[in-house]
Design brief:
It is a single chain. By secondary structure, this protein is mainly α. The protein is 67% helix and 5% strand. It contains 7 helices and 3 strands, in the order ααβββααααα. It has a 3-stranded antiparallel beta sheet. Strand 1 and strand 2 form a beta hairpin. Helix 4 crosses helix 5, helix 4 packs across helix 6 and helix 5 packs antiparallel against helix 6. The longest helix has 33 residues. The two termini are 19 Å apart.
Amino acid sequence: ATLLATTLPWPWGWDQGFSNWLQSVGAWCSAKALDALAIPCLQNGSSIETRDLHLVADEVCGGLGSVYAFGAFAILLGLLQHSGFVVGFKTLLLVPLWTLMGHFLRIFGILSLQEYVQRDFSNGWDYRILEATTTAIVLLLIWCSSRFIRRIFEPIPVADVEFGPVFSGLNKLFCWPQP
């Protein structure tokens, strides 16, 4: 049921608005990074234009790297690792951040490689390799986040009988459901 919830669109077009916002923020971050490298660019919404290339974030940030796909991966990862509700929820909350990072890496990679290598990475096999690489990086970041949060919220071993009920209560609160 949780995987189905990540594949259904949000009501009133919120999913499209959120996805467009992530893409425009990724384009803005990429434009700022290009400015820091002294690469001239012009950003307008979710599109960036350099001397040799006009790039629209909607075209390069869709498909494999969608928020839904990464959210489904985070939920599936939590189920496979037998994580508690708090760990799964916190991992799912980090998915938009890592998706934004993937959008930034993809846009910045295409534009900086265009500037330095003089090759268009926005289509063809070059784009597919860049897309697979950024997707693998985002999946790795989600996995690392899940492991880190899981480590923080792992059950506390009960060492003393006096504090047994306290630790038991904390374990039930933060590590629910326990495998």
